[in-house]
Design brief:
Layout: E1 6-8, H1 18-51, H2 55-83, H3 87-101, H4 104-115, H5 121-142, E2 147-154, E3 157-162, H6 167-187, H7 189-195, H8 198-212, H9 215-218, H10 231-242, H11 249-255, H12 258-281, H13 297-316, H14 321-338, H15 349-363, H16 366-377, H17 386-399, E4 406-411, E5 416-420, H18 422-445, H19 451-469, H20 487-499, H21 507-536, H22 541-594, H23 596-616, H24 619-628, E6 634-647, H25 649-654, H26 658-678, E7 681-687, E8 690-695, H27 704-728, E9 735-750, E10 756-760, H28 762-772, E11 779-782, H29 783-789, E12 793-803, E13 807-817, H30 832-842
Parallel strand pairs: 9-11
Antiparallel strand pairs: 1-4, 2-3, 4-5, 6-8, 6-9, 7-8, 9-10, 11-13, 12-13
Helix pairs in contact: 1-2, 1-10, 1-15, 2-3, 2-4, 4-5, 4-6, 5-6, 6-8, 8-10, 12-14, 12-22, 13-14, 13-20, 13-22, 14-15, 14-16, 15-17, 16-17, 16-18, 16-19, 17-18, 18-19, 19-20, 21-22, 26-27
């Protein structure tokens, strides 16, 4: 077996480019970025509290919001001092950021004043003094005299000196802490302890102490500024203030989807960083060695496969703890393999080292997350010994950016491999302990673990074995790091999650997000095709494809990730709506089952009562009677009354038995009922063999005379057909007289127990005279009705009839519809043209008829 010498990492002497300087200084500035992110995160929660607080508490939370932003920006200022080499650029950024840093002192003193129960008025007055100093600082920055170009140079960065505008502000804060805040806290300690959680007390003190520890570096002493670690006291302060609202870790991370959004925010940054880093940071020289192919393919597959599965799993159900743990485990696996890809390329070793250090900060927590996932999958509580693994994980994460993670590298034929230091051994030892403990738990409980959970445990064990095998090449044993093949356990885990139901996967969410994501996917595919010829001029075919893959794939995943974040609230609302609907439906079904028999009986009784009432009264009148208990008489100025009577009824009835007589009469009147219903008329009553109905009531209309004539044609047609049938069978038959008149009537309900809807007026008498004066088999109408229907029907004037107290009355026969309005030769059925004119009259149109020649 070949041996390879260890190459130690040494920072070069002399001037280096700004880009190289940035990579060398990354570990020094990274804690400041963390402080800035934590400050923004906590300021958001503080602002939410401010919006929902009362006036007094609201002012406290507003100051807390500003304070978190300011302390977070202190970390960002220190990061610029660690990462920016050019002094003028550094001074410019410090001037800009101090606009946000300046409120730190006055808001912090107000917080301390509030914590003492507003008893130490000196703290309030001192906050006003600090505001004045802040405005002096603003003035200096605006005048371009905030910071001087004279700097103190340290290994951890360059520190510009503050001008006379900045120094008073820098002196007042630490001076006020030791002279005012500390004595006030000691004096009012019992009050603070009674009204506030002690973490708030310790957090505020630590904020001032760490901020004060910036002073040595500003004064020229080689002391790493404590402000880099302000995120620690900020978390303590936040816990002391918000613990009862949303700082329960389980609620924050899972019930409020905090883990979901944290993971995706982290992933978004990493994916964009990868895409832009490859696009702008890799030159054709990076592919000069042959190590990128084929050795670079497995880690690329592992990274993007793990990230894609994590997006699908996390987006499926962000409130489910097991989904988030699974997604977190996949992401951490992807983080580990990310650092393997640059090692296959011909780029500066410091870039490779820093990328590995950044990824190991996150990957250090992999044993803790994987163990939790396993115990969640088998349905058991996390064991006590997991706290020990958590402490080891935290220690490894803290050491990851330090020189103790890797101390050099081996240059193998397949890639460079970092030589592991104490921090890497700590990560490996932690993983090995977690592997053994999980394996022991599995063997002890394997009889109770379901099939899907066994797949989850199996994928964890395989992933851990691959990672432990990576320790061999990192210590000089020339074996290809098979940890690059992490896509294998990732696929196994995804199989367990998505196919065997170990985790919840909402189909609606997947479908909705998939359709939205595909739109972006098509756009990026087109862009990649257009971009390929451009890079083909600089790279070979294989290098171009690899380069393009490293640019486009992170953007594809970022597209999926953003779509899931944007569509998730909508999907959650849909899920909640469906759940509530299902819940209400279930409750309704239960109630309906309990009361089904009683409800059916009540419904039957109600339907029978309603049916009976509607058989007696018109619908509108029935509704009025039910709502008011009575019906008011109503006058109708234009109603049409129709009477019928059978000629020779008595003679024919004498030759029939009672049952046959009733059945025959019922058959005729039933047909009459259906005919008048079709023609918008209202049946009023039958008296023996007489039938009476009317149109234009109880709802007024303009077509009642036409309706009555149409109904009369149908009735006479029916009676004529019945006569033909009876004659052919040599049976007795009835002939019908039918009379119609139009005029004013009064309608109402009479009776208390056996009530009836009836009409009164001379119109009723005239209609009766039209019937009695008519001829059998024909329709006899008055002149008033004739005037309303003459343009639609063929009529015949047939003379006068004497009416009691009315003199002679003109009468007309209605024979049929005019041909232009009829669809049949007999003129009984109206055509489409008739219906159009009829509809216009119904809507209130006045029809102007042409005079027929």
């Amino acid at each position: 077996m070949d041996s390879y010498s260890l190459i130690y990492f040494v920072k070069p002497e002399g001037a280096i480019s700004d880009w190289e300087y940035f990579w060398y200084q990354i570990p020094y500035g990274a804690p400041g970025i963390l402080t800035f992110v934590v400050g923004l995160f906590l300021s958001y929660f503080a602002f939410q509290k401010y919006r929902n607080s009362k006036e007094d508490d609201g002012f406290f939370h507003l100051n807390l919001t500003i304070s978190f932003i300011s302390f977070g920006c202190v970390g960002l200022v220190l990061t610029t001092r660690a990462w920016i080499q050019d002094v003028h650029t550094l001074v410019m950024w410090n001037d800009l950021l101090y606009f946000l840093v300046a409120p730190l002192a006055p808001t912090a003193f107000y917080l301390a004043y509030h914590m003492t129960g507003k008893q130490s008025k000196l703290l309030l007055y001192y906050s006003y003094v600090c505001w004045f100093a802040s405005f002096v600082l603003y003035l200096g920055v605006i005048l371009g005299k905030g910071f001087e170009t004279t700097v103190f140079e340290f290994p951890f960065g360059k520190y510009p000196r503050g001008s006379a505008f900045v120094r008073p502000w820098g002196i007042l804060a630490p001076l006020g802490y030791f002279l005012l805040i500390l004595p006030s806290f000691i004096k009012h300690y019992q009050y603070i302890r009674k009204h506030y959680h002690l973490t708030l007390f310790h957090g505020v003190n630590l904020l001032f102490l760490l901020t004060t520890l910036n002073a040595p570096s500003i004064l020229g002493f080689k002391v790493y500024p404590g402000g880099f670690f302000l995120f620690i006291p900020m978390l303590l302060v936040a816990y002391g203030v918000f613990r009862s609202d949303f700082f329960d870790v389980n609620e924050l991370l899972f019930q409020k989807n905090g883990m979901f959004y944290f993971l995706f925010a982290l992933l978004s940054f990493v994916l964009i960083f990868i895409s832009f880093g490859v696009s702008f940071g890799l030159s054709p020289n990076a592919y000069e060695s042959a190590k990128w192919y084929p050795w670079g393919i497995p880690p690329v597959l592992s990274v993007f496969g793990a990230v894609f599965l994590s997006i699908i799993v996390a987006g499926a159900n962000p409130s489910a703890r097991i989904n988030q743990l699974c997604a977190f485990a996949l992401i951490l696996t992807g983080f580990y393999v990310i650092q393997s890809v640059p090692l296959k390329l011909n780029i500066s070793y410091v870039v490779q080292l820093r990328i590995s250090q950044m990824t190991f900060v996150a990957f250090a927590f992999a044993p803790s997350i994987m163990v939790r996932l396993v115990f969640e999958a088998i349905g058991q509580k996390s064991p006590v010994w997991l706290k020990g693994i958590d402490i080891l994980c935290l220690s490894a994460a803290i050491l990851a950016p330090s020189p103790y993670l890797f101390v050099g590298y081996y240059d193998y034929p397949w890639s460079r491999v970092h030589h592991g230091g104490p921090a890497e051994l700590l990560v490996g030892t932690n993983g090995a302990i977690a592997l053994l403990l999980v394996l022991f738990t599995f063997l002890r409980n394997k009889g109770y673990i379901n099939f899907a959970s066994k797949w989850i445990i199996g994928s964890f064990l395989l992933s851990a074995l691959l990672l432990l095998a990576a320790l061999l090449p990192s210590h000089g044993i020339p074996i290809y790091p098979i940890a690059d093949f992490q896509f294998i356990p990732a696929i196994l885990l995804g199989y367990a999650v998505l196919r065997h139901g170990a985790l919840s996967l909402e189909g609606r969410t997947i479908q909705l997000s998939q359709r939205l994501a595909n739109l972006g996917l098509i756009t990026m595919a087109i862009a990649a095709i257009l971009y390929f010829p451009l890079i083909r001029e600089q790279y070979g075919v294989g290098e171009s494809a690899f380069h393009l893959t490293m640019i486009v794939l992170p953007l594809v995943l970022f597209n999926y990730l953003v779509v899931y974040i944007m569509s998730r609230p909508l999907a959650e609302e849909l899920d909640i709506s469906y759940f509530l609907l299902d819940l209400e439906k279930q409750k309704a079904d239960e109630e309906r089952e309990k009361a089904l028999i009683a409800q059916d009986k009540a419904e039957e009784a109600r339907e029978e009562s309603e049916k009976l009432l509607l058989n007696i009264l018109p619908y509108k009148v029935a509704q009025e009677l039910k709502s008011k208990g009575s019906v008011n008489p109503v006058r109708f100025d234009n109603a049409t009354v129709l009477f019928t009577d059978f000629k020779g009824f008595t003679k024919v009835a004498e030759g029939m038995d009672e049952q046959s007589l009733i059945e025959e009469l019922d058959a005729c009147f039933t047909q009459f009922d259906e005919i008048i219903l079709r023609n918008n008329l209202e049946k009023l009553k039958t008296i023996g063999d007489s039938y009476m109905c009317a149109g234009g009531l109880p709802v007024e209309n303009r077509t009642n005379a036409i309706d009555a004539c149409l109904a009369a044609l149908e009735i006479q047609s029916f009676m004529n057909q019945l006569k033909e049938i009876k004659t052919a069978l040599n049976l007795p038959f009835w002939e019908l007289r039918l009379g119609i008149h139009t005029g004013p009537v009064v309608a109402g309900v009479v009776g208390r127990f056996k009530f009836a809807y009836d009409i009164w007026g001379d119109t009723v008498n005239t209609a009766s005279r039209m019937e009695s004066g008519g001829e059998t088999g024909k329709i006899n109408v008055s002149k008033e009705t004739y005037e309303l229907v003459k343009y639609f029907f063929e009529t015949e004037y047939r003379g006068k009839i004497h009416g009691k107290n009315k003199g002679d009355l003109d009468m007309y026969f209605v024979h049929r519809l005019r041909p232009r309005y009829s669809q049949d030769p007999d003129g009984k059925a109206p055509n489409q043209y008739f219906r159009e004119v009829y509809a216009r009259i119904s809507r209130g149109a006045n029809i102007r008829w042409k005079k027929e020649s």
